[in-house]
Amino acid sequence: MIAITGASGHLGKATLEFLVTQTSPETLVALVRDPEKVTDLSAKGIQVRKGDYDDSATLVSSLAGVDKLVLISGSTIGEERIRQHTTVIEAAKEAGVKHVFYTSSPSPSANALFGAAIDHFHTENVLKESGLTYTIFRNNLYLDILPMVIGDAAQSGKLYYPAGDGKVSFVLRADIAEGLAKALTTDGHENQVYEIGAPTAWSFGDIAEALSHNGKPVAYIDIPNSAYEAELLKHLPAPIATLYAGMAEGMKQNDFNKPDITLEKLLGRTPVSLGEFLKNLA
Ligand SMILES: NC(=O)c1ccc[n+]([C@@H]2O[C@H](COP(=O)([O-])OP(=O)(O)OC[C@H]3O[C@@H](n4cnc5c(N)ncnc54)[C@H](OP(=O)(O)O)[C@@H]3O)[C@@H](O)[C@H]2O)c1
Q1: 282 pLDDT higher than 90
Q2: Is the confidence at residue 65, as pLDDT, over 70?
Q3: Spacing, Cα 91 to ligand 1 middle (Å)
Q4: pTM to 2 decimals?
Q5: Which CATH architecture best describes the domain 140-172+198-258+272-282?
Q6: 135 has which bridge partners?
Q7: Which pLDDT score, from 0 to 100, does residue 214 have?
Q8: pLDDT by residue (tens digit) across 212-239?
Q9: Which atom of ligand 1 is nearest to the CA of 14?
Q10: Whose CA is nearest to atom 19 of ligand 1?
């Protein structure tokens, strides 16, 4: 039996939607805080059970009979997130789960510029030290978040961002979901750490050039990180602004520059590229 936490979210739900095409729905478990958010999954015959990262006892009972668990990283930041992930890993062990897949990020480190990668560093260590079989998907940045980053650049002709010449192996979230479904249903992924992203990487100059193919020429203007963070602080709570500014600085330092063919091999095809994604946005 395969269970997925965060099944009400984009990645968890998409992974179950791929899995249900490959395996019988009664062997799949969607773990959620609110079952009302996944009536589409229960309509497909997928079991829906309660799974809150803050509720250890319920997690243990909901994981009964589960062999493989996908722990989708949570939405909080810092100590709280590490504690929640640890709760899920410990509950999995107590419930007799054999194999845990975890959605991490590139370049996890105790000193990462991108704050979320600090949480991933600690969670990866908790999982590796748990004695459970693990597979770590170090998911690169989603292409899906690019529209938020690009803003109105296609219309204004100016793409402002503080990433220098740093490159990112952007990846479509749906491709990660399909890759996860493939890895969950094939052998050979035990105790592996995978860089999950494109087999190439793109700079913000490349993004501006790709946007230019849609019509109006777009220029990339590299701005100071401090100016970017100051602008974010006008619209967002400080911890979120700091997280996004750290992500941009991580891009500049090439923390997300991780070309890799693992996802391509899992999918049996080339993942969706930056150019294809941006063309479809036009
Ligand atoms: N690589 C990237 O570019 C990128 C971008 C954004 C996020 N991420 C990370 O990747 C994860 C998956 O991405 P996504 O697009 O699927 O995110 P998403 O759509 O925001 O889904 C997050 C899921 O986590 C669940 N969740 C959060 N806290 C929880 C808790 N305490 N207990 C139980 N469930 C909890 C949410 O449940 P509810 O529906 O109940 O809230 C939701 O189902 C994110 O959570 C985040 O850690 C990566």
Answers
A1: no
A2: yes
A3: 19
A4: 0.97
A5: Alpha-Beta Complex (3.90)
A6: 101, 192
A7: 80
A8: 988 899 999 999 999 999 999 999 999 9
A9: 16
A10: 9
pLDDT at residue 281 is higher than 90: no
Q: How far is the CA of 162 from the centre of ligand 1 (A)?
A: 26
> Pairing mode, if any, of strands 2-4 and 28-32?
parallel
Residue 83 pLDDT greater than 70, yes or no: yes
Question: Does the structure show a pLDDT above 90 at 280?
Answer: no
User: For residue 23, how far is its CA from the centre of ligand 1 (angstroms)?
Assistant: 24
Which residue minimizes the CA distance to atom 7 of ligand 1? Answer: 75
Domain 2-138 fold: Rossmann fold (3.40.50)
Q: Where in the chain is the domain with CATH 3.90.25.10?
A: 140-172+198-258+272-282
